[in-house]
Amino acid sequence: MGFPKGFLWGGATAANQYEGAYNVDGRGLSNVDLLPVGEDRRAVVFGEKKMFDFEDGYFYPAQNAIDGYHRYKEDIALFAELGFKTYRMSIAWTRIFPNGDEPEPNEKGLQYYEDVFNECKKYGIEPLVTISHFDTPMYLVEKYGSWRSREMIGYFEKYCRTILTRYKGLVKYWLVFNEINMILHAPFMGAGVYVGDLTEKEATQVKYQAAHHELVANASAVKIAHEIDPENQVGCMLAGGKHYPYSCNPKDVLVSQLRDREDYFFSDVQARGEYPTFMLKKFENEGINVIFEEGDKELLKENTIDFISFSYYMSRVGTADPEIAERTTGNVFDSVKNPYLPSSEWGWQIDPLGMRIILIELYDRYQKPLFIVENGLGAMDIPDENGYVEDDYRIEYMADHIKEIRDAIDLDGIPVLGYTMWGCIDIVSAGTGEMKKRYGFIYVDRDNLGNGTLKRSKKKSFDWYKKVIESNGEIL
Ligand code: P53
To answer: Which domains are seen in the chain, by residue range?
Structure first.
């Protein structure tokens, strides 16, 4: 009983939030470099304010992030000490193709990730690699409007073929697009799509067409991955979290069900290989014209993903009652506030049972193995003079969530491949750009405006998670 042998315990980061070194060794600029910290960030993230280059008066935290580019050896050694079986990370597209359309890849970028994977191998850590964690080369954003254009698919395929060939034998687990459903909510952060000059109707059209291009590119990536090495396992990556009906009024139930479908649309296409009829009906009813080219349907059908992975931070709530207006704050996924749940310092509601609920839901829908690739608590840690943080709140959050995963395995019979806790080392927040929103077992001395020594130190949760992994989830 409990976690199966070989369960992949680990942690996760993303290139843009971790590496820094944004202009080192030939790296090109990407959309996610251009998200400033501060009050304008949301408008840029949502694609409402145009920021296609660095502007005076703003601080861009991703430029240097936590300098993982130069410190990965030290960090991976700490992950090894934690006992990680897997490390989820992402490749920055612009280290490999700085503009996105070069005939040849940038060798320095390729070598960097090869070194990282070899470092993991040294400790027996299996890399789990996200091919695009929200990032798109700015050159392609400017030239083609990013994923709104079909042109993107070919450039992305080339990028995929390049890395899948180079890292054959070093990497087996791949995720194509991080939180692919983000494109509908935060199109510039999620996919480099700026919609600020469009009407709402036009923006909807553009977002669904861009989503189609990503879904086609996803199928292509699956195809290339399986061709290059049949051992490769490719997952989708959904920003997960079920909508609960605010009440048992059937109207609330229906609203919640329909909102869930907006998210499941993506994983439905990726896992089942075809557009669900509800989405085709929506297109028809709302006059959304998504152009399919010849061969798209077959490509989608023949190249479905191998496992379902998702992030889970919080559940959501749906209601048909306009009087119930209290919303959660701090997340790009808008939701009514759930009166039964506490909230984090950033207003994200804490719902461990929701982990079991989403696992059941996704397994019932797809019958494919599941992989939790993000979960964690963003909190304001206060270190002592040695950089030690007594983060009992984080330990409690994680223990509560991991118990629910164990129940989903033991009581509901769900196959779960692994669990990678988000931001295992403190990194820049994607949503707010802050450093002080910390998730890690490892504290990093850096503040919201980039001051600090970047020194790494262990928090209380470090020793706790180490024991969790050692005992394969028996000791929580
Ligand atoms: P942060 C919300 C907002 C932004 C990104 O988020 C998000 C979400 C949650 O669904 O997605 C993931 O840093 C994302 C990570 C991100 C993490 O959530 O805003 O894949 O890049 O850091 C946590 O607290």
So the answer is: 8-470 (3.20.20.80)
